[in-house]
Amino acid sequence: MAFEITCSGNITTLSGLKNFDIESILECGQCFRWDKNNENDYTGIVKDKAVRIVQTKDAARFYGCTCSDFKEIWNDYFDMSTDYGAIISTLTTNDDVMKMAAEFAPGIRILRQPLFETLISFIISANNSIPNIRRVIARLSKMYGEKIDTEFGAFYKFPDPGVLGTADVSEIALSKAGFRSKYIKKTAKEFNENPVTTDQLKNLGYTGAKKELMKYPGVGAKVADCTLLFSGAYTNAFPVDVWVKKIMEELYLKKDTPLGAISDYASEKFGELGGYAQQYLFYYARSNT
DNA sequence: CCACAGGACGGCT
DNA sequence: AGCCGTCCTGTG
After folding, report:
1. What 8-state DSSP symbol labels residue A149?
2. Dist. CA A234–CA A228, nearest whole Å
3. Which nucleotide is nearest to A176 (CA to C1')?
4. For residue range A213-233, what is the model confidence (pLDDT) as tens digits?
5. In the β-sheet with A34-38, what is the strand arrangement from edge to edge?
6. Percentage above 90 pLDDT, chain A
7. How far in angstroms lies nucleotide B3's C1' from the CA of residue A279?
8. Which of A7-16, A63-72, A113-122, A243-252 has the lowest mean pLDDT?
9. Structure pTM?
10. What is the spatial distance, in angstroms and rounded to an integer, between the CA atom of A4 and the C1' atom of B6?
């Protein structure tokens, strides 16, 4: 690995980081459960592990994180084994648009998040705003997730499929998920009765995995692509939402290009790196338009 | 009061 | 197969 790890009890420090900017990573729309305490200072929970991360330049300190926690959870979650410098280098060759987008936020990384949490989170994201998505997920976790107390606050685990799958839709609706409440319940129920793993999705191939996810109620092409990308299953997944549609039409294509045509173009142009390209473009579009 | 937000669904043709 | 009205909730 290119960076160095120093462990001291409950604190793990990374130094010599490249292409790692905690704000870009946590606020580029791929995750919804991190809270900003200060500049470059975030707390969050993944599975049953809560952590506080404070970054200064090319170093990041993880509080509430032992060396084995980092190796078991966070190293994979933050995709630390991937060389983002090489990805940017490939994407920006002969492509001034990608050059501009990647230079805007070279510290973005694609998180490898738990599959069920990612699936439900992006069902909630349909026709919804990020602040509202965050509130709904926080309420569901508090209602149905196990409480985890730490030195830097209380956290709630993301609910298990069995719990969400057996809850009443009217009760789930108290989270303000609206018309998505019935999708949350049904998808959780189906997932619990027939669990799917990231490895199983990888064995299906991208197209097969996407079709499999689209069997769940509330999951269309965009939600399926987000789930495949942000759970670490397929880096070629290229979610096309209104922002990506807009900037792809503006910078590469022309107005009123159908969603499917944008997907095809991205697949042809970016290939296996489509997901990374999507994040640079998305973050650039959201921040500059 | 109305428009619209980081889509999916169902009922049309 | 493609088009289009509708859908909870929060914000402007």
Report:
1. E
2. 5
3. C9
4. 999 999 999 999 999 999 999
5. A4-8, A11-15, A59-63, A49-56, A41-46, A34-38
6. 93
7. 28
8. A243-252
9. 0.97
10. 35
